[in-house]
Design goal:
- The chain is built from ten helices and no strands.
- By secondary structure, it is mostly helical.
- The protein has one domain.
Length: 293
């Protein structure tokens, strides 16, 4: 059984696109929005801890180790509700904590900047638009780190493994490479490889790009809610994150087709991307209008 060259090439291109996108966005926006790498590192750390460690440990306990909850969550509707809320609570609590820490650091930096501005009051008005862009840039950079970590840890690394399996399958070396696996698991891998198509690569790219956009949008929402001192921002973020995860959970529970899920994600990503574009375009436009002619 051979994976078609077109399919393999499509998988490689889709993986390269998803892998490069967070870095390309950061590089292009770093100067206009005064992005700082430590904000992205914070996002990466939060996703790694709260999604890859805490959430996975919770899912392992609830779905496998605890017989009572595993039996209850075998109901498709219960599984959908649990899966969406678990992801929303774990990730958004982590985002909330991470951004609170970033906000404290930003407040310290703002105090230092205010002291410097007091010494040179003539430049205070001119520096105000840049401060706004830097502040929003913190949310964007954090979102690129959080969403980029998800793209790599959940998408790119897994996809690289399947590309390796496909190459070994075409060489007739897969069975020897996976000789330690049970026969049933090995046959399942062969079946998955046989089902891969160029459309599979496109779906992977669509889902990962949409997830990155959603993570940036949720990061901007959380950051602005914290800046405004709104106490309801964490519950709102949890609910919105859970709603984003509902279509995927419905597909995992075999309640809706994949095409419907991808259509919802594509439409949602376009809406969020448009809102983000307007959000980060406006400060730059205002700054250009304020420059002397």
């Amino acid at each position: 059984m051979v994976v078609a060259p077109l399919t393999l090439s499509s998988l490689v291109l889709a993986t390269l696109l998803v892998a490069a996108l967070p870095f390309v966005l950061y590089r292009r926006l770093r100067r206009p929005l005064a992005l700082k790498p430590r904000d992205a590192i914070a996002g990466i750390a939060v996703f790694a801890l709260f999604a890859m460690v805490i959430e996975r440990a919770l899912n392992d306990y609830m779905l496998h180790r605890n017989e009572a909850t595993a039996t209850f969550l075998s109901n498709p509707l219960a599984f959908v509700v649990y899966g969406a809320l678990a992801a929303g609570i774990c990730e958004e609590v982590g985002r909330f904590i991470g951004m609170r820490l970033l906000m404290k650091r930003a407040a310290a930096s703002a105090a230092a900047s205010a002291a410097a501005s007091a010494a040179a009051s003539a430049s205070t008005v001119a520096s105000t638009p840049q401060a706004t862009r830097t502040d929003d840039g913190t949310a964007l950079t954090y979102g690129l780190g959080h969403g980029g970590a998800e793209a790599w840890l959940v998408g790119v690394l897994v996809q690289i493994q399947w590309i390796l399996f496909a190459v070994l399958e075409n060489r007739g070396e897969l069975d020897g490479y996976l000789s330690n696996l049970p026969t049933e698991s090995l046959m399942r891998i062969h079946l998955i490889l046989a089902s891969l198509t160029p459309q599979t690569a496109g779906i992977f790219a669509l889902e990962r790009v949409a997830a990155l956009i959603f993570q940036i949008g949720l990061s901007v929402l959380m950051w602005r809610g914290l800046r405004a001192g709104w106490r309801g921002i964490l519950p709102l973020a949890i609910v919105l994150h859970a709603l984003v995860d509902v279509p995927a959970a419905l597909f995992q529970a075999q309640l809706v087709p994949l095409a419907a899920v991808d259509a919802v994600y594509a439409l949602g990503a376009l809406v969020v991307a448009g809102l983000l574009f307007r959000t980060f375009r406006r400060p730059g436009a205002e700054r250009m209008m304020e420059q002397p002619r």
